[in-house]
Write a structure and sequence with these properties.
Layout (H helix, E strand, L loop, with lengths): L1 H7 L2 H9 L11 E2 L2 E2 L12 E7 L10 E5 L3 E7 L4 E5 L5 E5 L8 E7 L2 E7 L7 E7 L2 E5 L12 E5 L2 E5 L4 E5 L5 E5 L7 E7 L6 E6 L4 E5 L4 E6 L9 E6 L5 E6 L4 E5 L4 E6 L9 E4 L15 E5 L6 E5 L5 E6 L14 E6 L5 E6 L3 E6 L10 E7 L5 E6 L13 E6 L4 E5 L7 E2 L5 H7 L8 H6 L5 E6 L27 H7 L4 E5 L4 E6 L4 E8 L6 E6 L5 E6 L4 E5 L5 E5 L5 H14 L3 E3 L6 E3 L9 E6 L5 E6 L3 E6 L5 E6 L6 E7 L4 E6 L4 E5 L4 E6 L16 E4 L5 E6 L2 E6 L4 E7 L4 E6 L5 E6 L5 E6 L13 H9 L14 H6 L4 H8 L24 H8 L1 H8 L18 H5 L7 H4 L2 H17 L4 H12 L3 H9 L2 H9 L7 H14 L4 H21 L1 H36 L4
Helix pairs in contact: 10-17, 10-19, 15-16, 15-18, 18-19, 18-20, 19-20
Keywords: Repeat, WD repeat
Protein name: Small-subunit processome Utp21 domain-containing protein
GO biological process, one term: rRNA processing
Length: about 1050
């Protein structure tokens, strides 16, 4: 057998047998694809957070949407969101039905829907970057279209017709067969002028397409024969490039738009211009569509001939009546946002759905809209039908909605965001179709009345919206939902001199969100439940811009800080001013202040210019208020000034209680509060986050990225930071770097890099999500907290490791499809080797976890139920005793065989017959062995050995391994004559002096005294041994009491306000 094992067993297994003789073999590291798993995580990636998904992306790119009918009932509309395609169902109200997976290696630059397939062309950019065309079906990648070997041109547009798929590149046309996706041919003309992305098929012209070029010419190609049929030249060379081509419902007529010229309706069969329409200067037409349901034109709308045009340089959609020479029927003003320096805009594509009176439009403002023509009486201008959108500019501020007092929003699914496009959105992390923009009133109606929708006054249209938000605060405890303050009310008014029905608002609730705005001296309120602007605009007392806002936990008061240092408090129910910090002193208060100055020796404070003198109890900020917060009990208002001074104010009186002055070392840029822990954090201009205990006014933590300053972070300021909901972590962003500190230890436990600089971040109230906004995206990246699903090591990150993370090229970012998010968490459950590697880093050997220190009184690892059941075993047996004897089972039906019948069945072997000779021999040997040993158990053997050698550890381990019933039998079987009971008492005394297994030792002694108490009293040696155990117990009890009193005194001293 041994020789067989030597031959078949691998060499490394045989060597392991030899190594085990010298000591335990180190555990081999688990490998993944030949690489240690602890090396799988790249230096720039996070170990505490996993990318989950990106929310807020609908149509943020310039890639036009594409639509396809789904039977006779609905249409599916597909948009590009970077490296994925999103498909919406029109009948369901633009409900998201598919997101393509996997993501393309590069951004998608062109797409088209064809039957039940969607084609997407992607490119990594550059001459050496990869590029290709993927085919998706129902959101899943199905195939990849063949491209020429070594192809270096991007596919800018598609055209599908008949059995052909045409891709337009810069100088070449690629033709594929739609059935097999194989490359049929490549078409390239003799002209060196580049193609534009304008291409269209010609109905009833077999295998013909028309393609535009940069010089204004339109070429007609036969894709089957690969020949150039004809070239339509522009009327003038000054018209510029072709920007749009679309065939009309009338055969052989094509609409052609130019960059600097008019729109022409051209007859390609006769090469004649049928109609010429002049367009607005500076806004070239980039999208053309024709209505095909046969109505919509004429005075009564009963004629055919409606055309719609749009431009990427404007947010308007122009509607044309092509009857009687053509005329402009109307303009749909501000269908999408206009381009501004702060945010992109314009209409990327419009399309009339075939046979429908519905118009679909998408814009660079990250929105997709459908419009319907159903006005009565007739109007050529449609109304909005469906709308899906998001921010049109990068997000600048994030805030998760806190939990309400009734716990209605305790799941943390709602996320508020603000952007440079002057909008506020509420995102649902549970259902995308619940996400909505908070209304700012009838902005378009106001603009229309004021004549701001004309082309020359578009900048004034943005002024009707609130300025970009710089800070926000929220409390849902007085939010009334949809029924808050019923009726119509003007938005953002000053409450001074206005009559407010307090009874109605007290029953229904009031505003729950307060925001500060860029270079604006008013803080605005919002109804979260009604998703609209609130009634009040709170002005600062010094008329300087608002720099920070806060709300009381009760949801009744809003605190506003100004750029000049003023702090005002307003009542959200009535909108009235209630307090100023510092408060204005009445004559009586001024007199009391003079008495306090002499009695307590109050110190003086001078303003920044040194002219005005404040005393303690006044002390207005001399610089901008960058942070405000109200404590959990509405007793203290905390304010942070940009000069590094932190002030604590009395909420009711407005007087200054305490002040922290860091102005000599650093300034303050922001402030956050963690109410459940009474902690406030302040971001300094020196790159440090300081944490203060609100109750004691003491600085308890200084959180630096590294103990030794890093040159890479020298000029980078902290952009934003936030507490985790349990107050255990604090996350901050510095450029594209996200840092996470563990507050109890003060260690930096995680650091990872983003693709772009972070502008804002927020923790969900449940701690499940971390939301991050970046400068290069109009969406919000959501990360999952892996610590909720698995054990994640929190080893301290040193300066060298942090420098390696900063210099690393690897970055992380969630995706719209959620690819790599939930799967990453699931897969990481097996990464035990990485956790073990992080925990054991820097340690040469495994520490003894059985007894960490001889000074500690430790408990055992025995399950609690085992030693507790031993104490109450008699009670358990009495409770489980059967109440009545077992009943005889009822007689079974005659056709069911009984157990006796089975046992007595012929041919069935009897138990005594089935016993083999080997089993009989083994049983005989066991009986003989027991007779030689006198029936002694393993516990009795170890007890006798312990009495001879005074080594009690094997005895204790054996007793710990016994079940409650077995331990009870062994304790009952102890005898006095053989000194077994004395040896056990000595073992328990040794266990007490070793300060080990305290609770099981107490349980064993209690059972021993209960069972053999009379024998212990009558035997002198046993009584003396039990007395020694009692003395050891009292000595240990006094020692632990002294240590507990010492720790209590130290904690009380540190918590004292005078320290």
């Amino acid at each position: 057998m041994e020789s067989f094992w030597r031959e078949r067993c691998p060499a490394h297994i045989r060597n392991m047998e030899v190594d085990m003789a010298d000591g335990p073999v180190a555990k081999r590291q688990k490998l993944a694809n030949g690489t240690p798993k602890s090396q799988q995580r790249a230096p720039g990636t996070s170990r505490l957070f996993a990318p989950y998904r990106t929310v807020g992306l609908v149509s943020p790119t310039a890639v036009p949407f594409t639509s396809v009918p789904l039977g006779k009932t609905t249409f599916q509309i597909t948009t590009s969101v970077g490296r994925s395609l999103q498909t919406y169902d029109l009948r369901r109200g633009l409900n998201l039905v598919f997101i393509t997976r996997p993501q393309t290696p590069g951004p998608i630059i062109a797409s088209i829907a064809w039957k039940d397939k969607v084609f997407g062309a992607w490119s990594e950019g550059g001459d050496s970057g990869a590029r290709g065309v993927w085919v998706f079906k129902r959101g899943k990648r199905e195939a990849e279209v063949e491209t020429p070997r070594g192809w270096r041109q991007d596919v800018k547009a598609f055209c599908c017709f008949g059995g052909w798929i045409l891709g337009v590149c810069d100088t070449t046309l690629l033709v594929w067969k739609s059935t097999t996706y194989e490359l049929y041919t490549t078409l390239q003309g003799i002209s060196p002028v580049l193609f534009t992305r304008c291409v269209a098929s010609l109905p009833t012209f077999l295998n013909k397409v028309v393609v535009g070029r940069q010089d204004g010419s339109a070429e007609i190609w036969n894709v089957s024969s690969g020949k150039l049929i004809y070239t339509v030249l522009p009327p003038s060379t000054a018209y510029g490039a072709v920007t749009a081509i679309q065939p009309t419902p009338a055969l052989s007529l094509v609409a052609i738009a130019y960059e600097k010229g008019p729109l022409l309706i051209h007859d390609v069969r006769a090469d004649q211009t049928v109609m010429q329409l002049n367009t607005s200067a500076g806004a070239p037409i980039t999208s053309i569509t024709f209505r095909t349901d046969g109505v919509g034109a004429g005075e009564d709308g009963q004629k055919a001939g409606v055309m719609a045009t749009a431009s990427i340089a404007s947010g308007d959609v122009t509607l044309w009546d092509l009857n009687e020479g053509g005329r402009k029927a109307g303009v749909l003003r501000s269908a999408h946002a206009d381009p501004t320096p702060a945010a992109p805009g314009g209409v990327s594509k419009i399309e009339f759905l075939p046979g429908q009176h519905t118009l679909v439009s998408s814009g660079l403002d990250n929105s997709l809209k459908t419009w319907i023509f159903d006005h009565t009486p007739f109007s050529p201008i449609p109304r909005i039908l469906h709308h899906r959108g998001g921010h049109g500019a990068p997000v600048t501020k994030l805030e998760f909605l806190p939990s309400a007092s009734d716990g209605s929003d305790d799941t943390g699914k709602w996320l508020m965001s603000a952007s440079q496009d002057r909008s506020v959105w509420g995102w649902s992390l549970r259902r995308d179709n619940q996400s909505t923009e908070l209304s700012q009133g009838a902005v378009l109606s106001k603009a229309k009345k004021q004549g701001l929708l004309s082309g020359s006054s578009r900048d004034s249209l943005q002024e009707l919206k609130c300025p970009p938000i710089t800070a926000m605060a929220c409390s849902l405890n007085r939010d009334g939902g949809m029924g808050a303050v019923p009726g119509k009310h003007p938005v953002w008014q000053n409450a001074k001199g206005k009559k407010v029905d307090a009874e109605v608002s007290a029953m229904t609730g009031w505003e729950s969100v307060v925001t500060a705005h860029e270079r604006d001296h008013k803080a605005r309120t919002w109804f979260w439940g009604r998703k609209r602007a609130g009634r009040w605009a709170f002005p600062t007392s010094d008329e300087s811009p608002v720099t920070s806002v806060a709300m009381s936990p009760c949801g009744t008061f809003a605190v506003v800080g100004s750029e000049k240092g003023g702090i005002d408090m307003f009542n959200l129910q009535s909108g009235l001013h209630r307090q100023r910090f510092p408060a204005r002193l009445t004559p009586q208060q001024a007199k009391q202040l003079k008495l306090d100055m002499h009695k307590h020796g109050l110190a003086e404070e001078r303003s920044e210019d040194g002219k005005k003198v404040f005393y303690r109890g006044q002390g207005k900020h001399a610089s901008a208020v960058v942070g405000l917060a109200v404590d959990n009990l509405n007793k203290t208002v905390i304010s942070a000034g940009a000069d590094g001074k932190v002030k604590f104010w009395d909420f009711s009186t407005g007087l200054l209680r305490h002040q922290l002055d860091w102005s000599a070392s650093t300034g303050t840029t922001a402030m956050r509060i963690q109410r459940s822990s009474d902690l406030a954090a302040f971001a300094g201009s020196d790159g440090c986050v300081r944490v203060v205990d609100i109750g004691t006014y003491k600085l308890i933590r200084e959180l630096w990225p590294a103990r030794t300053p890093l040159l890479q972070l020298h000029s980078i300021a902290i952009a934003d930071f936030t507490f985790s909901p349990d107050g255990h972590w604090l996350a901050a962003s510095m450029g594209s770097l996200i840092l996470l500190w563990d507050l109890p230890t003060g260690h930096l436990v995680d650091a990872f890099k983003l693709v772009a600089s972070c502008t804002s971040l927020a923790f969900s109230p449940t701690g499940e999500y971390l939301a991050i906004a970046t400068k290069d995206s109009v969406g919000v990246d959501v990360w999952s907290n892996k610590a909720l699903f698995m054990h994640v090591p929190t080893r301290h990150i040193g300066a060298a490791e942090l420098a390696a993370i900063i210099d690393a090229d690897s970055t992380q970012a969630p995706t719209t499809s959620g690819e790599g998010g939930q799967e990453l968490i699931t897969a990481s459950n097996g990464d035990g080797e990485e956790a073990e590697h992080d925990l054991m880093a820097g340690l040469d050997e495994e520490p003894n976890v059985d007894q960490l220190s001889s000074d500690l009184l430790s408990l055992s690892l025995v399950p609690k139920s085992r030693w507790q059941n031993l104490l109450h075993l008699d009670l358990i047996r009495a409770r489980n005793k059967p109440v009545e004897p077992p009943k005889k089972p009822e007689k079974a039906p005659f056709f069911l065989p009984s157990l006796q019948d089975r046992q007595s069945a012929p041919g069935a072997p009897r138990p005594e017959e089935a016993t083999t000779a080997a089993e009989l021999e083994e049983e005989r040997s066991r009986v003989l062995k027991q007779s030689r040993e006198g029936g002694r158990s393993a516990f009795s053997t170890l007890l006798r050995e312990a009495g001879e050698t005074q080594v009690y550890m094997p005895l204790i381990e054996n007793l710990k391994s016994l079940s409650p019933a077995a331990a009870d039998i062994e304790l009952r079987s102890l005898s006095v004559e053989g000194e077994e009971m004395l040896t056990l008492v000595q073992a328990l005394t040794w266990l007490m002096r070793e300060r080990r297994d305290f609770e099981v030792g107490q349980a064993w002694m209690a059972v021993l005294l209960r069972l053999h108490g009379e024998l212990v009293v009558n035997d002198d040696a046993l009584r003396e041994a039990v007395g020694e155990w009692r003395d050891a117990l009292e000595e240990e009890s006094k020692r632990v009491a002294r240590l507990g009193a010492y720790c209590s005194g130290v904690v009380g001293y540190l918590r004292a306000a005078r320290v």
